[in-house]
Write a structure and sequence with these properties.
Chain lengths: ~160, ~500
Amino acid sequence: MEAWTDEQLQTTPDCRLAALRVPASADGSFRLSGVCSASGRTPPASVTLRVQRGATVVSLTLPISPPDAQMVVAAAAATEEAATAEAAEWLSCAEWLSCRSLGRLLQVQHTLLSLARMQEENYDPEACAAAAAELACGCGIASEYSSLLKLSMAEQEP
Amino acid sequence: MTTQPLTSPFSLTYGEDTKLPLTVRAAAFHVNAAISQQLALVEARLTVCNDSITKDIEATLRFPLPDSDATVCGFSVGVDRAVAVPKAKAAEVAYKEREKGRAVATAAKVSGATWETTVYPLPYNQAVEVTIHFVCNMTADGAVALPLVFAAPVERITVTAVDEDGTAGVDNLGGGTTGSTMPDGLRVRFAPAATEGCIVSAERNGSLYWSGRVPKAALDRAFAAEHATVTPVATAPTDEANEVHVGIIVDTSRSCAPIAEARLACLAALDASYASCGRRVRFTVWSLSRRTSCLGERMEAAAARAVLAATRYDGGTDLSLLGGEGGLLDEAGPRGKGCEAVVLLTDGVNNLLAKQMPDLGAAGVAAVPLHMPLPPTGLNANLALLRWLAYQTGGSAAARLDDPRAFADAVSGAAAQTVRTRHAPPLPLHPLRPLRPLRPLHRVCSLHPCNPLHTPLHTPLHVLCTSDPLDRPLTPSTPPSADTHTPDDRPLA
């Protein structure tokens, strides 16, 4: 119930639909992604998929590895480089780490899968383009709907 | 064996006509890979210098990406980081800023996997750092291959790579080199993932993201295990169990008249396809234009064909008659005729467009998958609407009417295509918030709570929500159907 009404929970494919029909990709694999607020009480632990091939249906429960371990490892590896002077000059350390983190990778991947999904779940191309542009800009990626714009002065705010 | 040197589209030049090459003094690459996802986030940091023109210049940077699916997700020049804006706005701002004579740069894809951007200002004899971040797919053997070859030797090149477990990757430069053009490009290889089908997660900006990839091998194993556990049926199936009831909704508007013959072929293909699965099909046929009528119930293929052939094509289309309580889909579903699947033969062209869209949010409306053959190429059709209908009902709108057997096999299940039919996510733990209408409808969902306060892990919770959750209360239900995951759930790792 809480998940159903939680607007911050988004998955691709959409978990709120009763029935899906998402074909496997060209290499025969399935991809999925999702996002929710990290300030919840307990992180999610698994995702269940139902997959059909011909008349056969199987359910797969995939464990979600907790983020803590990965973050520690990534942070440790990155901190070593962050100590270098040139990195410190380039950006503040926290920001720099954030740009190259696993979290950023997963954020971009979720956005890309969501952009692909949007084209199916919107029958109005204009509405789809507007929503996709908002999503792509929110993630900070260059896409079919968004561009990266570099400005140098404060008065150049787009 | 000698390898052919790469021809790279990388360039850093000044001037539109002369294309004067500029110096890249140093390059640093960092690869952050998620092996289980076959994804990598690559950072390329180039230290460039204008050592030719004695003034501030604007250089053009062309940067090759591993493939055209790669996505640039960050770009900065010195301390100035690019922001993402809608394409139209980016062009508008860039034009205005250039008119004012101020520095501005946009990054755009020029051809396939090559990205081009401008770098400004590049002062004379002053090193400037240009950084590009992009996300790309890894190759099947777990490597990241960047086809980047510098035009001139670069003084210092460094490479670092790490996967999600913290294991370092191995690159073809041995971690770095000096005075090289990287003639073979950059290739970073990682050890294969220990577990497949695992979902990785990480936090960023207060959100928890997760991503999963189930490889074909894991799916094959799961299906093989399922086949091994299925016990053979002792008795022959009854006629009733062997019979499948398919609803056919025929758009009889004038715009569909050119595809009337193809529809007859589609009906025959459905009959043949179900027969190949050992099932006998019965058709209930409705006509749909500005009004609806049932043309016959539970007919054999020949009778359905006769009915369809006698149909007169005239008038317009009101697709809103499909949805809503008492609409055609409701009538075809479990609350009405009990069709197992519904085939909608339409071009999706609606008289009043969005004002007559079907309401699929009503109870029982989208209980059966809606399959639509796409009209032949060249015929005016609203494909986006057809795909939307299929998406919302778990049906299909991929095969064309030109290939009726392929469409029929997708409907009957004769095609052994692997499809995801349900996605049950973990239950995040949040206080209740008001829901905004993200999509036109939400219906029945199956949720997977991981909250120990609610139900044990790996026990799915089925929640029934009739129609728009904004307007109607949610009614939890017990998991009664054959769709429940409980008996078959198995960890994949």
